[in-house]
């Protein structure tokens, strides 16, 4: 997702925000995006779950972010998109980043590192909405034949996004042949529904007939506005709002192929991809920092509030894969991604990993929660 991840369309967040019609509204997502500067210092014992969380996993993810932070000028902002002043500048984080490389293994050493270099601060917005996303896996081929008729396209040569889409073709026009599909196709998928959700997630794994995996990542988007098909299904009376999830939308599309194709085409936005090469098959897709995301530890945030690379302790819950139970989340996260619908101080999307089980959890994930920030001691309020 890299620098272009600001345009990434994360399913859970977009679906809820647009369906509810109030993206970033204080009553649902917490206070305004720039209320964090009123954050107050708290103690470690005030964080429920701090002493039971295995922070070694968070430290590993944080080291990835530190590679970027250490390349910045000390006077530079942590993030080109801004961020609340409570987080300081790159130079405030660089001593901790240098020390992170020397921390021993294990949860106790990781916790000691965080407690030595940082202090926790609580925001005035108590709770907000948390959703999930994942890296889907789907069947495909490098050539067009048989059931493999739905292309995943690279951006045309010289392509530059224009806000609002300009005169560039819409999704429907692209599907009808407005671009040179044969020239731009990276892979051909078995299912147009898989292709649509690949666009929503922004990255994915394509399993070829040989068993080989091709990794796809967001490259660009057309600039045309995104329309939530979940919202349209509710408006058309096809399902009630409380039943809308990735699973129910996919089931409806499968049961109504002709109507489903027309519905998907109402979303004029179109995503282009690139193939990731020489990537560890076990690693996550790259996030907005250009480093692999860590399942359960990478969080997509509003970068105008929480800069990339910052540390956030999340208290929420997520569903089990079958949707029958909930699992408490008391976990240190790293802000490593973003999304078009992620707006506000107490708002985030959890990266759950790759494959079917991760998708089942991410598709059902919509829960209230709270973020507590860790900021360098020297600049803490």
What topology does this entry show?
Layout: H1 11-20, H2 26-29, E1 40-41, H3 56-69, H4 90-100, H5 107-117, E2 118-122, E3 128-135, E4 137-141, E5 150-153, H6 171-175, H7 181-184, E6 185-189, H8 192-201, E7 203-207, E8 213-221, H9 229-235, H10 246-255, H11 257-265, E9 271-276, E10 298-300, E11 311-319, E12 326-337, E13 347-354, H12 356-364, E14 366-376
Parallel strand pairs: 3-13, 4-7, 10-12
Antiparallel strand pairs: 1-2, 2-14, 3-14, 4-6, 5-6, 7-8, 8-9, 10-13, 11-12, 11-14
Helix pairs in contact: 1-9, 3-4, 3-5, 10-11
Structure keywords:
381 residues; alpha+beta; Barwin-like endoglucanases; 12 helices; disordered N terminus
Structure characterization notes:
This protein is of the alpha+beta class. Helices cover 27% and strands 24% of the residues. The longest helix is centred in the N-terminal third of the chain and has 14 residues, at 56-69. A hairpin with a 5-residue loop joins strand 7 and strand 8 (213-221). Helix 3 crosses helix 5. It has twelve helices and 14 strands. The chain has a domain at 47-132 and 290-379: Beta Barrel (Barwin-like endoglucanases).
According to DSSP, the number of beta strands is 14
> Beta fraction of the residues?
15-25%
What's the SSE pattern?
A: HHEHHHEEEEHHEHEEHHHEEEEEHE
Q: Using only CA atoms, what is the Rg?
A: 21 Å
Largest sheet: 6 strands, mixed, barrel
CATH third-tier fold name of the domain at 47-132 and 290-379: Barwin-like endoglucanases
Number of helices: 12
C-alpha termini separation: 33 Å
Strand order of the largest sheet: 3-13-10-12-11-14
Q: CATH architecture of the domain at 47-132 and 290-379, please?
A: Beta Barrel
Instruction: Assign the CATH superfamily of the domain at 47-132 and 290-379.
Output: RlpA-like domain
Helix content: 25-40%
Q: What average pLDDT do the residues reach?
A: 88
Unreliable spans:
1-34
Structural class: alpha+beta
Q: Assign the CATH class of the domain at 47-132 and 290-379.
A: Mainly Beta
Q: How would you sum up the global shape? A: globular
């Amino acid at each position: 997702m890299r620098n272009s991840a600001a345009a990434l369309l994360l399913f859970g967040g977009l679906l809820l925000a647009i369906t509810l019609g109030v993206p970033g509204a204080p009553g649902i997502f917490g206070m305004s995006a720039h209320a964090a500067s009123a954050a107050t210092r708290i103690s470690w014992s005030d964080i429920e779950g701090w002493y039971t969380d295995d922070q070694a996993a968070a430290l590993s993810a944080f080291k990835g972010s530190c590679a970027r932070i250490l390349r910045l000028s000390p006077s530079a902002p942590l993030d080109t998109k801004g961020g609340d002043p409570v987080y300081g500048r790159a130079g405030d984080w660089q001593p901790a980043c240098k020390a992170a490389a020397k921390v021993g293994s294990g949860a106790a050493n990781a916790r000691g590192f965080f407690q030595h270099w940082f202090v926790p601060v609580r925001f005035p917005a108590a709770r907000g909405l948390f959703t999930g996303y994942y890296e889907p896996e789907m069947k495909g081929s490098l050539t067009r034949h048989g059931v493999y008729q739905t292309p995943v396209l690279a951006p045309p040569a010289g392509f530059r996004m224009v806000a609002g889409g300009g005169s560039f073709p819409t999704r429907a026009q692209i599907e009808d042949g407005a671009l040179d599909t044969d020239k731009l196709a990276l892979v051909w998928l078995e299912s147009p529904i898989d292709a649509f959700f690949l666009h929503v997630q922004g990255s994915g794994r394509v399993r070829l007939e040989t068993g080989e995996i091709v990794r796809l990542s967001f490259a660009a988007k057309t600039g045309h506005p995104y329309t939530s098909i979940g919202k349209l299904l509710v408006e058309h009376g096809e399902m009630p709002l409380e039943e809308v999830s990735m699973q129910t939308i996919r089931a409806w599309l499968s049961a109504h192929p002709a109507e489903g194709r027309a519905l998907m085409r109402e979303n004029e936005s179109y995503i282009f991809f690139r193939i990731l090469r020489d990537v560890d098959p076990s690693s996550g897709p790259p996030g907005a920092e250009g480093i692999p995301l860590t399942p359960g530890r990478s969080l997509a945030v509003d970068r105008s509030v929480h800069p990339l690379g910052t540390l956030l302790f999340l208290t929420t819950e997520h569903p089990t894969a079958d949707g029958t139970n909930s699992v408490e989340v008391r976990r240190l996260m790293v802000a490593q991604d973003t999304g078009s619908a992620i707006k506000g101080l107490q708002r985030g999307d959890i990266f759950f990993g790759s494959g079917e089980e991760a998708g089942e959890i991410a598709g059902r994930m919509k829960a209230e929660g709270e973020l507590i920030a860790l900021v360098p001691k020297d600049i803490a309020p």
